[in-house]
Write a structure and sequence with these properties.
Layout (H helix, E strand, L loop, with lengths): L2 H14 L3 E8 L2 E8 L5 E4 L1
Antiparallel strand pairs: 1-2, 2-3
């Protein structure tokens, strides 16, 4: 499994668990990281 697949799968699982998407940062054509909030409003990144 490549990095993009791992980040996307992790992103989907966290959304299903109640996280909120804040932003997706890209570097050219490559996904850099995803910024999210947990259900309590704490920020975290999936990279």
């Amino acid at each position: 499994m490549n990095r993009l697949s791992v980040v996307c799968e992790s992103h989907r699982k966290r959304l299903a668990a109640g996280a909120t998407l804040v932003s997706e940062e890209s570097f050219g054509a490559d996904l850099g990281h995803v910024v999210m909030l947990d259900p309590e409003g704490n920020g975290f990144c999936v990279a």
